[in-house]
Design a protein that fits this description.
This protein is mainly α. The chain contains four helices and no strands. 83% of the residues lie in helices and 0% in strands.
Amino acid sequence: MISFRQLTFLWYSDLYRYEGRGGGRIFIKTLLFTPGYRYTFLMRLKTYLKTAKPKILFRIPSLICGMFLR
């Protein structure tokens, strides 16, 4: 199980890997227009939501992320 802080660190690391820099505008642009980053972002989010407590609250968002990954 990973914490939200670790999740955001991983997202930032992925963003740096794709763009060579980070930031709010770069994050939005990359998330919207780079399919590889969007897939990685959603996979990490789904994994986090699957293991988050309490599971009942995070089940529906996890299923929605799964639908976008198909």
